[in-house]
Structure formats: structure tokens, C-alpha cells
Write the C-alpha cells for this entry.
Amino acid sequence: MTRFTKVAGLTALLLAGASASSLNAQTAEVLHWWTSGGEQAAIAEIRKGYEARGGEWIDTPIAGGSAARAAAVNRMLGGDPATVFQFAIGEQLRELADQGLLADVENVAAGQGWDDKLPPLIMQAAKHDGKYIAAPINIHGENWMFYNGAALEKAGVSVPKSWPEFIETAQKLQDAGIIPIGLGGQPWQERILFNSVMLGVAGRDFYARAYSTLDEDLLMSDTMLKVFETFAALKPFVDEGSPGRRWNEATAMMIDGRAAFHFMGDWAKGEIIAAGIEPGSSVGCVFAPAEDLAYIMTVDVFAFSNIDTDAARAAQEKMAGVMFDPDVQIAFNQKKGSIPARMDIPNDSFDDCAQYAIKTIQDPNTHLVSTGLFGVPSSVSGAIDDTISNFWNSADMTPEQGRDSFRQAIANAK
Ligand code: BGC
């Protein structure tokens, strides 16, 4: 290109530029559910990286994770796949690979040394038959409890350390006219709250055993009854507007102080950052009350539809390389609220909450899987979300009935 400029001047440069880009551009349609303010700011960093390397990005945002995942799968089955689509590592990604729907990006992964840079759990879950079928971009934690410092101050309460303490605190907040919990009302959001209660009440070993074995005795245990009792005790502390509310609306309620607490994955931090607030300052972050230190993880990836054309393969490989690029992972994760999937990236530019997450997961005993996309098959994941949501939204189910329907639905689904 430089030679052209010298020889034939500006017109030739522009022409050369245009033809070079149309010859080399790898066009990728990217299907994802990152439609909130923080999410859009974060994905823009990947897009920037892709375009800077000559790629062309066609954006297909679809609001809501389950709608977006259904669209990605339906389009693959219908013969009109997106080049690249957002997903998460774990059981459900494996199900897609088992059906032969995914392409691998092993060449890129080998070239960039992904094996040495990813935590072993993520490395294994991102592979199928020994080859990478997805590009891991981050680690999110789902057992965070965000809070509005001014709201707590107004009610004269501090951050509770146990669930009984939480319930006392919530009562005081309510008496002071503040909504104690800003909760979005969709089954997956109610499940995030439930799983945090389960971790706090039953402990991390119980959580790990219950969801890895789906053992009926564990699911019917007294411990599980206590989990349902505690979960039920939180119902009065959510406002009437909760059903159907989207997660980022619930995050906004906590940011502006209408609600004091918000239980959500740390993508909520993306909204906090987009609102110009430094996480860990006026909006605080701690883990949901629990004695055991643990991180309920979900790992965002982009997966690659099985498309057998050179152009699509080139676009997919370019995209995988961009997503694993250290600078892209830093810029993306700073806006997303998550921490990089790569372990070799310096931490110093991340906020206090992210630093705490990074420190926590150094101990592999803290690693727990989300039941959303990571830890259980899709049928079980759906059964978990549905029964928890039914219980949460039913005025007259007892905790015993909640526990029983939970066990039953999981037994039928597994
Ligand atoms: C994803 C996050 C995303 C959140 C809300 C989760 O499933 O892991 O990246 O921000 O959904 O859209």
C-alpha cells in the first residue's frame, strides 16, 4: 500500500485501499444478546478489534439470552447460520457440539497458546474432542450482592453477613421506605438469587455435590428445606413491579437508590460503569452472604457455526484471534464487569470488585458452576429455573412443596 501511494498518489491509495479491503475483508455476522448499555459498550471493544484487523462485522443483537440462543440454534438447523454466536462454556455448548453444529478454531488456539493461558476448567470446557469449539472471553460471577451505600446509610444499616442478618436489615430498609431488593422478574434472575441463598445456607460443598450429582436424597434433605425457607422469607422484600422486569432495570433501581440491594452476575457492573460510577465506591460489591468463599461462575464465549466455506472459516479464525487478544480482553472486560478468561493478563487496571474476584478464584475450591448454561444439561437447567420461578411467584406454596417440586422436576429432566 505504501508503495502505491508513492507511485500514484492519493487516488491510487484510495482505490488500493478500497479494493484491498473488499478482497481481504472477512465478513462475520455476530449474533449476541448484549443489548444493555454496559454490554453494548463492552462488545464494541471486540468489534473495534475485529475491524482494526480488516474484518467486517455484521451485528445481530437479540434481546434476552434464551431468545438469542434459540435464534442461533434455529438458524443453524435451518441452514442459515450466523458466522459467530454468543454462548457460554459448559454442558449446553457440548450439546451443540455433539449435534455437529459447531466448527473448531483449533489452529488459532494452538497458534496463540490458549492451553497455557486459560484456567484448566475453562480450557477443558471450551474443547470438544480435543479441539477448541469456542473462544472464551471472560469469567463472570453470579453470587454478587451489589448495594447502594447511601440507601443503607439512610436506613442506618450496614452490609449483612448472613441470611438471617440480611432479613433483619431488609426489614429496616423497608421501614425506611426503601425497596430492600431490586429484583428482575424472569426465571433466570430468580434462580440467581436462589442459588446465592443455596450457597449461603447449604455451603459450597453441598452446592457442588447437589448440582453435580443431582442426587435425590440431597435435593430432599433438611438442608434443602432450609434453603427454600430462607428463599421464601425474602419474598416480602421485593416490590410489586418485579415480575417481568429486565435485569438492567433492576440494576438501575439499585444504582439510583430506589432499591438497596441487587443480586446479580457482575455484568451488573457494566451498567454501574456505564453510569459513570466506580464499582466499590458509592455502589458496593460483596459476595452474597455465605460463610464459604465461592464463585458461581459462568464464562462467556463466542462459538462458531459449522459453515463450510473458506470465507466463513477465515472470518471465524480472525474473530477467535481477536477475542483472545490480550488488549481486547482487557478493554472488553473493563467495560463488561467480568474478569479476563486469560490468566496471564495484568490485573492492575481492573476495579476493586474484579480484583477480589481474581484473588478468589486463585483457589480452585472456590469454583462453582452456574446452573444456567455451565453446570447442568439444558433440560435440567430449564427445570431448575421453572420450579424456582413457580415457587417464588406462588402465594401459597410451602417451602416443603417448593423443595418437592424442585426434586421432582430435576428427577424428570435428568
Ligand atoms: C451472560 C452475560 C450477560 C447476561 C445478561 C449472561 O448469560 O453471561 O454476559 O451480560 O447474561 O445479558
